[in-house]
Amino acid sequence: MASIVFYDIAHKPPVSESCCSPNPWKTRLALNFKGVQYSTSWVGMPDISKVRQGLGQPASRKFANGSDFYTLPVIQDTATNVTVGDSFDIAVYLQRTYPDSGGGDLFPAQTLDYTFVSSYEIPIPLSKRDDGGFPEYARFNTNIDAAFSAHVQLMVEGIPLDPATIDQTKAEFVRRAGVSSWDDFILTREAREKLMESFQSTLGDLAKLFLQNSDGPFLLGQKASYADFIVGAWLRMAQVTLPKQEWEEVRCWHGSVFGQLHDALDVYAGIK
Known about the structure:
Blueprint: E1 4-10, H1 15-18, H2 22-34, E2 38-44, H3 48-54, E3 61-62, E4 68-69, E5 74-77, E6 82-84, H4 87-97, H5 135-149, H6 153-156, H7 166-177, H8 189-210, H9 226-241, H10 244-264
Parallel strand pairs: 1-2
Antiparallel strand pairs: 1-5, 3-4, 5-6
């Protein structure tokens, strides 16, 4: 019997095919890597605040106006009676609680020398967190989140929203981003091309880090770590939400390093 309940965001049915939220994907990849027994509880976007608060988890982020931003993932471990509500904190918890399970160390020592600097405004608030004793990984997580979030407008229009709650969900996205309407997310062709060029350049700097180890496809060669899951989770979102042609472009950029990473992580991408 599964001891961990993993709360993920439900999108368009079937939810196992449409799940694309990056932070829950970080957790799924980490859970599967660790080989721990768990089950997924799917939560529609309009119910996230209620469910998270019901689990006793405060908001992990704040909007620009200071109001609480409730989101997922959350895990509830019935074996230890512990509930954790941030993807990075969840990975740290799994490593501390189940150090030798599955693939072993989620946080092997490595230098993650990547910093994202851009003039693009980040459209969604990022979590502020303790480094959990893994400062290289925490810093890398923050920079990767910023890099992809700066280009997330490429993906918003393609999020597979649940038709049953589409109006509520769009209103929530509008509120989170602080824009006036859903139409503000829609890019013109010219603006989209410009943002894709920026995305390619941003991933080029990141690709250099992956290319330092020619054994690939992971940063440490053949051994996956939580750093690979951080990037891979965003690639899962891109795969679901980008138009097919654009996703194929992303896969092929920079010597296909990100397409290779995405495919190599399939072994940890099973949905339970």
